[in-house]
Design goal:
With 147 residues, this protein is mostly beta strands. It contains 2 helices and 10 strands; from the N terminus they run E-E-E-E-H-E-H-E-E-E-E-E. The chain folds into 2 domains: 58 residues, no CATH class; 88 residues, no CATH class. Helix content is 12%, strand content 31%. 16% of the residues are buried.
């Protein structure tokens, strides 16, 4: 179901003061892309935001993979240690993926998983997917997404 995106309404009173009425907006909790207006169904009974990745055109494949039994991780600079540890617990080789930065110094920009021709590389903002059959894949971050 497509969400409504209510535009802001700016009014000016007789003294020239502006006021703006706006609807709260909801973004995908996977990639951060805007989805539209916040709805009552977006909060659970305790007031916590629910997972809406299945509504996002970009993140829907990740949500579908999870429903099919895949294990997923979102890779960011803040999550890399936990993701690396989780993958190590599965007895799969994982190591930081390095590239030269704008200053010429090498920097970690993601994670390399596995070895040999079947290895995959995930960069910041990518979803790492482990399929039930043991294969690994990467769902790339949307173009222009911040990590």
């Amino acid at each position: 179901m497509k969400r409504t995106t209510t535009p802001d309404v700016i009014t000016v009173d007789e003294q020239g003061r502006e006021s703006t009425v706006f609807a709260l907006k909801r973004s995908c909790n996977g990639c951060g892309q805007p989805l539209g207006d916040l709805l009552d169904r977006d909060l659970d009974a305790d007031g916590h935001a629910v997972d809406v990745r299945a509504e996002c055109p970009h993140c829907r494949p990740v949500a579908e993979a999870e429903r099919a039994g895949c294990r997923t991780w979102l890779l960011t600079p803040r999550t890399i240690a936990r993701v690396d540890d989780d993958i190590d617990q599965l007895r799969v080789f994982a190591k930081g993926y390095w590239q030269p930065g704008p200053d010429g110094k090498n920097r970690v920009v993601g994670l390399r998983i596995g070895d040999g021709p079947d290895r995959v590389v995930a960069r910041w903002g990518d979803w790492i997917i482990r399929h039930p059959d043991g294969r690994w894949s990467v769902h790339k971050a949307p173009t222009g997404a911040a990590s």
